[in-house]
Design brief:
- There is one protein chain.
- The strands form five sheets. This protein has a six-stranded parallel beta sheet with strand order 2-7-1-8-9-10, with helices on both faces. The protein has a five-stranded mixed beta sheet with strand order 12-17-16-15-14, sandwiched between helices. It has a two-stranded parallel sheet with strand order 3-6.
- The two termini are 17 Å apart.
- It has two domains: 230 residues, Rossmann fold; 112 residues, 3-Layer(aba) Sandwich (Udp-n-acetylmuramoylalanyl-d-glutamate--2,6- Diaminopimelate Ligase, Chain: A, domain 1), CATH 3.40.1390.20.
- The protein is of the alpha/beta class and 357 residues long.
- It contains 16 helices and 17 strands.
- Helix content is 41%, strand content 21%.
Length: 357
């Protein structure tokens, strides 16, 4: 049995979708496996037992037949945090080790999917770094390539993990960054002894978010479009310009949400007419009956939030990553991207695994 840990040095790096895509491809290569989040931060009750909601979705999607405890033996709940703060923590690391040893019996791979960053879980003694070093698990770091500063984090992680680091996968690579990644970043990391096992392109579908989840993230009050909450939002526009520039600003875009002040009925109407998939009104201002009526005619969901436009825009930065496992089309796309973007020969060599197909 081989232990693999998928972690990141920054949150919202794409660990869940990558882990699911990796697991699906490994299964297609004839490997038997189990998937577990050692430490979960998305508590969900299944048959009176708390597990991690994302880990449970992975289990259901891959049809692994695991129990809630097997999916996530340590879940960050308010009770767990309270116990830790009072100094009443248990030996959670022992619980994790016992569980993955049990799940590894008769399987080729146990895939451990990290939560947050490699530091997450440290307050209860189950941080990613500690787990990797104590268990001898091979670590795959996945991170988003947004600028060169991520290299500092990767190098720092590599120094801590040493031989436990199998390599890195660069996620969400913009097309214009491909040349720099290939010609500069990958050779630089190779000189530092860090293998780049793959690169996944930035994808509009994977960064999209449903109207329903968007409303949950923002704590918004939906006013119209209740039958269209599964609509996927792929981009956001902030309607702060003069209305005369609106048509050029939206530019025929599709599947977009417009974030606009509730006191800007002119921009609200312009966004609806331009084909907005959703309207987010900030400042707790409610729209006029004319706006509501026109939105209903165009099947445009409208929601109201209390916060100002700037605050809401900041909270939307990683909205798509929070909705990653709830959409079957995202899971399918992630599996395809992992298949195309990961060098599985290099990955299996780094992990010491022989595929069976």
């Amino acid at each position: 049995m081989k232990l693999i840990y998928v972690g990141s040095v920054r949150a919202f790096a794409g660990k869940n979708l990558f882990s699911l895509g990796l697991a699906r491809n490994m299964m297609n290569h004839g490997l038997s496996l189990a998937v577990m989040k050692p430490y979960g931060s998305n508590p969900q009750a299944i048959d009176d037992t708390y597990t991690d909601g994302d880990a449970w979705i992975m289990n259901e999607t891959l049809e692994l037949g695991q129990t809630p405890d097997q999916c996530c033996p340590v879940v960050r709940t308010q009770d767990l945090v309270a116990k830790a703060l009072r100094g009443h923590s248990e030996d959670y690391m022992a619980r994790i080790k016992a569980m993955y040893e049990e799940m590894g019996q008769g399987r080729d791979v146990v895939l451990l999917c990290g939560t947050g960053t490699l530091r997450s879980g440290a307050m209860v003694g189950v941080g990613g770094y500690k787990l990797a070093l104590e268990s001898g698990v091979k670590v795959i770091i996945i991170d988003r390539y947004e600028n060169d500063f991520f290299l500092d984090d990767l190098l720092s992680a590599a120094l801590r993990l040493k031989d436990n680091l199998a390599g890195v996968v660069i996620n969400a690579v913009d097309q214009e960054m491909n040349a720099a990644l290939t010609e500069q970043v990958t050779p630089f990391l190779a000189k530092q002894g860090i293998k780049v096992l793959g690169a996944l392109p930035k994808d509009d579908l994977l960064s999209s978010v449903s109207v329903r989840v968007l409303a949950e993230i923002l704590g918004a009050k939906p006013l119209t479009g209740f039958s269209h909450t599964d609509r996927m939002i792929k981009r956001f526009f902030i309607g702060a310009m003069q209305v005369g520039h609106a048509s050029r600003f939206f530019g025929g875009a599709r599947d977009f949400a417009c974030l606009v002040g509730g006191d800007r009925p002119d921009m609200q109407m312009a966004a609806i007419e331009a084909g907005a998939a959703c309207l987010i009104l900030t400042g707790n201002f409610y729209p006029s009956e004319i706006i509501i009526s026109r939105a209903e005619e165009h099947d445009v969901p409208v929601m109201v939030v209390r916060a100002d436009t700037f605050t809401v825009s900041r909270s939307l930065e990683f909205a798509g990553m929070r909705d990653s496992l709830s959409q079957p089309e995202k899971i399918k796309r992630a599996t395809e991207l992992v298949k195309e973007g990961v060098d599985f020969d290099a990955l299996y060599q780094a992990l010491g695994i022989k595929p069976k197909k």
